Structures are given as C-alpha cells and as structure tokens.
Amino acid sequence: MRLVLLPFLLLFSSLSLNSQQLAEWYRVYTFDNSVIEMNTSLVTFISEDVTRVRFRWTFDQPETLSEGPKSKYKSRLEVMEVNCSLHRYRPYHFTFYDGTGNIIRIHDVPGEWQAITSGSMMEKLFVPACELIKKKTHTEVVSSEEIRLQKAAKYAFAFAQQLERAKDFNSVIDEFFVPNFLTGYLSDKQTKWFLNLDPDTAAKLSRAELQRSYVALMNAGYLSSLYVISQCPSACGEPVALEKIVPPDVLHLIRNHPYTVRYGNQPGNYDFLAEKIDNVARLRSYVDLLERIATLMRKHVIRVAAERSKAYRAMLDDWQLYQPKVRTCGEDCLGLAKGTKLFEVNVPVFRLQIAEISGKLRVVSAINSFQ
C-alpha cells in the first residue's frame, strides 16, 4: 500500500516562512528540544541607542532553575537590551513559567553590557533584534494593496493558531468560514472539495450532513498529516507501507471497521479508501470511519507533541506560509460575484482562499495542501 493512496495520509512538499509577514511571536531559532521566539509587537526604546527586545524560550521538557530552589520551568521570557550601533547587549529581565503558564520566578537584576561575538548564540538573536528595531524606526510607505495582503496574512495565521489549539476543524467553521461555503463548493465543478465523494451524491445531502462529512475528511487529513510529519525522516521521502507509519490502534480500527468489511477488497490492500462514494449509505459509513480515525489520531498527535517535533519545526522553517496571493474571479466562483478578489494563502497542511465579505475577511474555501 503506497502512502499516496489514502485520502488522509499524503506526501509532503517543502514550503518556507515569509520573514516579511511577522506574527506577534516570530521564531528566530530552533534547537532539538526547544525554540526561541521574538516578540515583534512590543519593542521599548530606552534612549537613542538602547532598545529592549523580548525573547521567549520554550522547552520540550521542563528545565531546572540554576539558582535558588530547584524548581522546574517550561518557558522563559527574556528582556534583552541591545545597542545596535555598538554591537553590544545585556540581559535585562527574566521571567520563568511552569507548564501551565504560571510565574515561578522573576530575575530582575540587569546584567553587564557585553560585545557580540561572531558566530555566537547571542549573535543569532542580536541580528533579528536589530532588524526588528530598524523596521520599527523606519516608516515605510505601504500601499493599500499591501495593507490588504497583511490583513489576509494575519487572518490566515489566526485560523492556523485556532486549529492548532483545538485540533478540530469544527472549531474554525463558525469563526472563520463564510456561512454558505458549502453552496460555493457545490457550484464549483472543477475542484474536488469533498475528495472522493460523488458530486451528485453530495448535492442530495442536507447541509448538516454534508458539513459533517467535510469536517470528518479535513480532521482525518489534518491530524494524520501532523502525525506523519512528526515521524519524519522515517515516514517521509519514498512512499511507505501503511503498516509502517499508522499507529497500531488506528490500523486495527481501519481493518475491522464495517466500511472495510463491506468495501475492502483483500487483506493489506487499502485502495478502497480512495474509491468514489456514490451513495448516502456508503458515505455515512465512511464518515464514521474517518471520525473514529480522527479521534485516535488526535490522541497520538497530542502524545507525540507533533507540532513540537523536530521534523515539524524543520518543515515550518521551510514552508511558504502566510504569503497571500491575489486573484480576481473572472466569472462567478464559489458563489462569489465576478470581480471578487480572493486571497490564496498557505497555512500548515491547508490552502485557504479568503475574501472580504461585507467588509470582513472570511474563508471561502480550504483544501488539503497535498490533495
């Protein structure tokens, strides 16, 4: 069984983060067991030459405080003062947090000014800090089009953050999607928004049942993708057997589910999972299977901390995320009027199309990036 034959486990391509579209916390360095992020919104100017910039260190496993009571902390906020013209810095303030975000210690004694050493860890923080300060102190003329792109990028980032927190596609439907997005899907004959669901069968379903099938498909794809990425490099590259990558309980579920019993061809062959679904009864069984897969996969994603895995972090560093591209509907598209501008943007695992509806940004479509 090749990985590409499953509708919810897909091959992956590389993308890269756009340094021009900065989130509030922007990742500046990745270790094997921790990450460092810089706050891009809060910069404090102390004098003409001295500025305070904030960094957040987050660790996979709790660290032990080096001084005082041997408490454990999971993250550390460091306020650094930098003098970009003299190439010097000093640590100004530290706050240590436990795994639930509670403060366990504050160190409020500024350190000594030090010179930046070429190739040092501090240089890796100092350089983006000074770039941020330069950006804050130099007013740029921004076009109205660029402002719209930035808003779309921020909206897409909020979508991705919500999905990552909830790990449930239902959580983004009401908050981000245009209310009639399913009608738009049904009117589009070019894209397989429901993957292997026959369009005529999709048109017969109630909106509630159609949305349930769509959410089941998206959840299974999203969570399975997160899990597979976290298992790289063993799971990436050449297509691999399903048995070598899918957790045993998920594999057991697939093998013994009524859908497999009814539509499976032979043991070890899972091609039937990608076959066209052309009747409501088959769809309902298929949706039940996808929902059960998602329930199990969600537990595995949490168990392995998939979004914190080294492989996932490496992919985020290379992905082209939050870089909207604009296209204009030449004809009616997804139920939108001719001339409507769509912002096409990648977020982790999905490609979104965003439009401004009644003055507000809304997602009009989302599809798995690897479909």
Task: Count helical runs.
Answer: 11
Oligomerization state of this entry? single chain
Measured between the Cα atoms of the first and last residue, the distance is 18 Å
Shape descriptor: globular
SS strand fraction:
15-25%
Structural class: alpha+beta
Taking all residues together, what is the mean pLDDT? 85
Biggest sheet character: 7 strands, antiparallel
Task: Report what the structure shows.
- This protein has 371 residues and is of the alpha+beta class.
- It has two domains: 3-13 and 149-368, no CATH class; 31-137, Surface-adhesin protein E (Lipocalin).
- Helices cover 37% and strands 24% of the residues.
- It has eleven helices and eleven strands.
- The protein has helices spanning 121-137, 144-166, 170-176, 181-187, 199-204, 207-230, 242-245, 248-256, 258-263, 280-303, 310-318, and strands at residues 25-30, 34-45, 50-64, 72-83, 88-97, 103-107, 114-115, 325-328, 341-347, 350-357, 360-368.
- Strands 1, 2, 3, 4, 5, 6 and 7 form a seven-stranded antiparallel beta sheet that branches.
- Strand 1 (25-30) and strand 2 (34-45) form a beta hairpin.
- Helix 6 (207-230) packs parallel to helix 10 (280-303).
- The radius of gyration is 24 Å and the shape is globular.
